[in-house]
Amino acid sequence: MYIPKHFEIIDETEICKFIEANSFGQLISLHDTAIVSTPMPFLFDAGGRVLVGHLAKANPQWQQIQKQKVLVTLQGEHTYVSPSWYESAGVPTWNYQAVHIEGIAQSFTDSKKLKHVVDTLTEANEAAYKNPWEPDYTASMLHGIVGIEITITSIQCKFKLSQNRSIQDQSNVQEQLAASGYKALAKAMNKP
């Protein structure tokens, strides 16, 4: 990912928080001679530098992924920025936050490990509901998925939030984003 210095994020804590809050992304790898991508949720273990998820067994992406270098892209809220919001001259652009994670993938079919992945993803996502669903499925249902574990080799983080504009332009953009419903993106612009 191309990252000009003023958009680069290197603070590990901030990167980890972003990954945990935006853990649905694209698993990108090679299958035969094609580049393939699957949208999927991930579990992130910052200490172990590992991402874990699962694919449908019917998805051929997993079949050649063993020991392959892969890319996972995660994205937060994003939107168009109009040059009409600037005090000084400008061009149309886009504000966004993104993380690219490279690593070495391994597939697995161990039912205990798969159950742990599915249960942990379920608990994390059901926690926001008033009446969360409790995992209730037969072990045989796990035969329809394949686990993917990615040992992370590098993380790149880019927050393009108008940092290359004047303070007044940044303030104008932030105000317009908040008024347009992009509150998370506007709030992210408050961080130094």
Keywords:
4 helices, Pnp Oxidase, Chain A, 192 residues, 7-stranded antiparallel beta sheet, single chain
Write a structural description.
By secondary structure, the protein is of the alpha+beta class. The chain has a single domain, classed as Roll (Pnp Oxidase, Chain A). Helices cover 23% and strands 37% of the residues. It contains 4 helices and 7 strands, in the order αββββββαβαα. The protein has helices at residues 12-21, 111-126, 167-179, 183-188, and strands spanning 24-31, 34-41, 43-45, 50-56, 69-81, 93-108, 145-160.
Mean pLDDT: 94
Number of strands: 7
Helix content: 10-25%
Total domains: 1
Spatial extent as radius of gyration? 19 Å
How far the N terminus sits from the C terminus, by CA atoms, comes to: 22 Å
CATH class membership: Mainly Beta
Question: What structural category characterises the helix and strand content?
Answer: alpha+beta
CATH architecture: Roll
Enumerate the spans where pLDDT stays under 50 for 5 or more consecutive residues. none
**CATH homologous superfamily name?**
Electron Transport, Fmn-binding Protein, Chain A
Largest sheet: 7 strands, antiparallel
Question: What general form does the structure show?
Answer: elongated
Following the backbone from N to C, one meets helices and strands in this order, namely HEEEEEEHEHH
Fill in the CATH topology. Pnp Oxidase, Chain A
Number of helices: 4
What's a quick, concise take on this entry?
By secondary structure, the chain is α+β, with helices and mostly antiparallel strands. The chain has helices at 12-21, 111-126, 167-179, 183-188; strands at residues 24-31, 34-41, 43-45, 50-56, 69-81, 93-108, 145-160.
